[in-house]
Structure formats: C-alpha cells, structure tokens
Amino acid sequence: EVQLVQSGAEVKKPGESLKISCETSGYTFNRYWIGWVRQMPGKGLEWIGFFYPDDSETRYSPSFQGQVTMSADKSITTAYLQWSSLEASDTAIYYCARRYSTSDTFDVWGQGTMVTVSS
Amino acid sequence: QSALTQPASVSGSPGQSITISCTGSSHDIGGYDYVSWYQQHPGIAPKLIIYDVTYRPSGISDRFSGSKSGNTASLTISGLQAEDEADYYCSSYTASITVVFGGGTKLTVL
Predict the structure, then answer these.
(1) pLDDT tens digits for range B20-52
(2) A103, B33: Cβ pair inside 8 Å?
(3) pLDDT, tens digit, for every residue of A46-73?
(4) CA angle, B33 then B5 then B105, to 5°
(5) With contacts defined as CB-CB under 8 Å, which chain B residues touch A114?
(6) Is B55 exposed, middle or buried (0-12, 13-18, 19+ CB in 10 A)?
(7) What is the largest CA-CA distance in chain A?
(8) Chain B residues with beta carbon closer than 8 angstroms to that of A111
(9) How many CB atoms lie within 10 A of CB B44?
(10) Contact at 8 Å (CB) between A82 and A90?
C-alpha cells in the first residue's frame, strides 16, 4: 500500500525557519515526483511545486519560487519542504502528494501538516 | 496563473445528479486532456476521484464521471448520496508546465 505520512503540526514565530517532512512507503520513491500543495485556512488548494527524488529536479509554481525549498533524502524515502524565514501568511495546511502520471495528477496524499506562524 | 473557475456551491437531493463545472482557457483545460478532480471532506486530505478528464482511479464509484468541452471541464455525480457532501476541486496541467487548481465547490446534499 502506498502511504505518505507527514510530520506533525508546527507553531513558529515570524522569521523562524522550518522544515516539514513527508515519509513515503509502498512504492519506488525515486521514480515518482512528489508534489506539495498549500491550503490556507478556509481556502482552496494551491500548487507549490514538484520534486523528483531520482535527480533532484524541481518545478516550482511562480508564486512560490524563492519562498520555499523542496528536497528529499532517498535513503529514507522522505521528502521535505522548508522555509528559511517564515511569515504570518505562511500559516496553512501543507500537503505532500505523489504525482501519478504525465498529467500532473496527485494520486496519493499525505494527511497534511498544519503550520501556524504567529508572534 | 489565475485559478480555474468553479461555482462556489451546488446542491442536490439524494438520488439526483449534479454537475460541477470548471472553466479555464486554451492555456490549460482547453489545451490538454489533463484535468483531475479531487474530493475533500472537512479536516481530511483531498482524494483523487477523476484524472485525465474521464478516468476513475481504482475504488472510485462509477457514480462519478468527468468530461470536457472546449475550455470547460465537468464533474457529474449521479445517484447523489449523503456521503458525497464535500468540497470538490478541479485541476489542470498548463502550458507553463505548472498546475492550476479551481477555487473549489461546496456540494450540499439536501
């Protein structure tokens, strides 16, 4: 069974750094892109980007380019999303999801990580 | 990249059929057969229910169907059930090699 299990909720102050994780299992990690999606409180889904573990290739949404960094550790089949300096507007639920096909479909999702940024 | 346009809400009675539209442009929906639909219940991660316009993942009820005409994609749910009450989001691949989501539609089962 394909599973994506995300790290727990975080509460941070503006300006702090953060790295959240997405531990995968049940498939060949290197062969599928991992995507990240943001959902701000009470709002819709926003695509952040894709990361390909095999060669670390990235595709970022223009809206998130330079704001976050995607990465992965192949040895533990885990993907990461990180911020160097959080802002209050980063408060949201962040989902990781496996990219299923060339159509950029997300077929399996993590449970989400709630990030709260508040002074 | 502007979000795809969905109605904010739709409603229907049990047993009825409803359709949710998702309008984009030739840059996204109209240019590719790469539309997906996701169902999201409150407090739970989204779930894929339609991909590549018309295909259902394994385990998804055949009450869910997708279609596309020009720059507009549609999700139809037939035989509406109480458990279908949720938010629904469309998404599309774009010519900019990005992914764009719709704003979401809240389905209420009366």
Answers:
(1) 999 999 999 999 999 999 999 999 999 999 999
(2) yes
(3) 999 999 999 999 999 999 999 999 999 9
(4) 100
(5) none
(6) middle
(7) 41
(8) 45
(9) 12
(10) no
